[in-house]
Design a protein that fits this description.
Elements lengths: L23 E2 L6 H6 L7 E4 L3 E5 L9 E5 L2 E2 L7 H22 L3 E6 L12 E6 L18 H15 L3
Antiparallel strand pairs: 1-5, 2-3, 3-4, 4-7, 6-7
C-alpha cells in the first residue's frame, strides 16, 4: 500500500486545467490532479498503478470517498485512450471492492462526470462507500419521465444510430 501524503486542498474548488490545455496529454501544468499524480500537491494516496492514481476526496460525500485519475492528463471518459480503458476500469473495480473490504461498507456508488459538474478538468471516477440507511438517496439530481413509449423509443433509436459499429 502506498503511504499517504498530506491531504490535498478542496477538489471541488481548487485549480482547474488551463483553458487551452490539451484534452489528452501527459500532464497539464495548471491541473490539480496532474500535480497530485506528480507528487507536487499533497494527497492521501490509496492506490497507485502504472496508469492511475487514487486518493481520498478532500470533501467526501462519506469518509473513504476516493477519486481515481489516470496518470495521463485526460479530460473526459470519451477522451480516455482505448489502451487505458481496461486498466482504468480494473482500478475502479479494485477501489469498489476496497471500500467494502477495508471500510466495512455494504457497497459503493461509482460515478464519473464529463464536463458538466466536473470540478477539475481531469477525468476522475468517484468511488463512494455506501451503507444502507446512510442518507444518500438515489442520484443527486431530479428524475424525469418520457412523455410516452414513443418518445422513449425515439431516444433509444437516436442512441443506437450513433452507437452502431461502422
Amino acid at each position: 500500500m502506498t503511504p499517504s501524503r498530506p491531504a490535498a486542498g478542496n477538489s471541488q474548488d481548487d485549480a482547474r486545467s488551463s483553458p487551452g490545455a490539451s484534452r489528452s496529454a501527459t500532464s497539464s501544468a495548471g491541473c490539480l490532479f496532474c500535480r497530485i499524480v506528480a507528487g507536487e500537491e499533497p494527497a492521501h494516496v490509496v492506490l497507485e498503478t502504472d496508469d492511475a492514481v487514487a486518493f481520498l476526496d478532500a470533501r467526501p460525500v462519506f469518509k473513504g470517498h476516493t477519486l481515481l485519475v489516470p496518470r495521463r492528463h485526460v479530460v473526459t471518459l470519451p477522451d480516455l485512450p482505448a489502451d487505458l480503458l481496461g486498466p482504468y476500469l480494473a482500478a475502479v473495480q479494485r477501489l469498489a471492492a476496497g471500500v467494502v473490504d477495508g471500510l466495512g461498507a455494504q457497497g459503493s456508488f461509482v460515478a464519473v462526470n464529463n464536463v458538466v459538474s466536473q470540478s477539475v478538468a481531469h477525468l476522475h471516477a468517484h468511488v463512494v462507500p455506501r451503507t444502507k440507511g446512510d442518507g444518500l438517496r438515489g442520484f443527486f439530481w431530479p428524475r424525469t419521465k418520457y412523455a410516452d413509449d414513443a418518445e422513449a423509443a425515439d431516444y433509444a433509436e437516436r442512441l443506437r444510430a450513433v452507437l452502431e459499429p461502422d
